[in-house]
Amino acid sequence: MAEPSSKALDGLRVKIDAVDQELLQLLRRRLDLVAEVGAIKHKDGVPIYAPKREASMLAKRRAEAEAMGIPPQLIEDLLRRMMRESYISENDVGFKRIHPTLGPVVIVGGAGKLGQVFANLFGLSGYEVRILDKADWARAPQLLADAGAVVISVPIEATCEVIERLPPLPVDCLLVDLTSIKQGPLAAMLRVHPGPVLGLHPMFGPDVSSLAKQVVVVCHGRAEAKYQWLLEQIQIWGARLHEAPASEHDQAMQLVQAMRHFTAFVYGLHLKREHADIEQLLQFSSPIYRLELAMVGRLFAQDPSLYADIIFAQPDALARARHYLQRYQEALALLEAGDKAGFCDSFAEVAEWFGDFAEQFRSESANMLMVANDSRSV
């Protein structure tokens, strides 16, 4: 059915189109200014992400919007989207090279997706980057002979084996890995290399377009002073650093990664075995369930071996899964008994444990739900 129209409506639409054109011109001007900012940051070695500046600017724009009768959330949404584009565009300018005398950076596994991300970042910072992949091991001694840093970016199950296979590295060469499990790889690197050693875990996937606001976990190894340049370089790329002992990191990852992925896998398996109609589920989905379903579906759009490595490589994964099963059976017992009061008691117990984080997460998820609903196409 054709959309109703009238001269008055058409006239207003023409005016709206003209305003949209003005907005485009303003966006072009803003992007040009951002490019100038990026050039200065590149020259001075300033991180692309400045949290205090961003928070202050957003607070001012929200207040100004409210005074003009514009919903504050509207201007914040627009600005956050523009800032995300700005962070991406700053990649085109490049970054200051913190260690100008460093020898070549060799990415072991650099043909992989995450390895490519770091190879690109080092390249944008002016470092010489070499790739050492499966087919290149015959040339490993040659590629590594004068290396300034060696970055291990291979699947979890192969990480320690690859580290053990490395030929002797220059004594001052930095050896660093990017694995999502830290204790084993860190111990292996300390064992095979007497020089500086560092364990890193980038808390993001290879599909990121910018490191702005991303988190990289730092597990110190040996000769911390000799790899401060890399930590500073990562911050210039826009990431935030979180330091933690390797054991603490691995314990957290059991819940944050392994159990979360395992739970999503089981739920996806359940939907498949129940012969669920995904299109129908989407039609009946509230924004929150649509987002949850999207996160489950996202898992199955990726390489299964990656998630198998994450889940199976955790030493306590089986025990954690059994604990989860026990909690599920406890909840199932409440359902079988029709015990709504018991359910509410358990619910309140968990809510008390979450404390103020529950309200924080409710607020954060509200913004995500709006974005998810806006992008709805089915």
Topology pattern, helix = H, strand = E: HHHEHEHEHEHEEHEHHHHHHH
Low-confidence stretches: none
Task: Work out the strand percent.
Answer: 5-15%
Ends: how far apart?
19 Å
The radius of gyration over CA amounts to 25 Å
Largest sheet: 7 strands, mixed
Topology of helices and strands:
Blueprint (H helix, E strand, L loop, with lengths): L6 H38 L6 H17 L4 H22 L11 E4 L4 H12 L4 E4 L7 H5 L4 E4 L3 H10 L8 E4 L5 H10 L4 E6 L12 E8 L5 H9 L3 E4 L2 H28 L4 H6 L3 H13 L4 H10 L3 H20 L3 H15 L1 H19 L4
Parallel strand pairs: 1-2, 1-3, 3-4, 4-5, 6-7
Antiparallel strand pairs: 5-6
Helix pairs in contact: 1-3, 2-3, 6-7, 9-11, 9-12, 11-15
Describe the 3D structure.
With 378 residues, the protein is of the alpha/beta class. It has helices at 7-44, 51-67, 72-93, 113-124, 140-144, 156-165, 183-192, 228-236, 246-273, 278-283, 287-299, 304-313, 317-336, 340-354, 356-374; strands at residues 105-108, 129-132, 149-152, 174-177, 197-202, 215-222, 240-243. Strands 2-1-3-4-5-6-7 form a seven-stranded mixed sheet, sandwiched between helices. The mean pLDDT is 89. Its main location: cytoplasm. Pathway: Metabolic intermediate biosynthesis; prephenate biosynthesis; prephenate from chorismate: step 1/1; Amino-acid biosynthesis; L-tyrosine biosynthesis; (4-hydroxyphenyl)pyruvate from prephenate (NAD(+) route): step 1/1. Pfam families: CM_2, PDH_C, PDH_N.
Quick recap of the structure?
The protein is of the alpha/beta class and 378 residues long. The protein has helices at 7-44, 51-67, 72-93, 113-124, 140-144, 156-165, 183-192, 228-236, 246-273, 278-283, 287-299, 304-313, 317-336, 340-354, 356-374; strands at 105-108, 129-132, 149-152, 174-177, 197-202, 215-222, 240-243. It contains 15 helices and 7 strands.
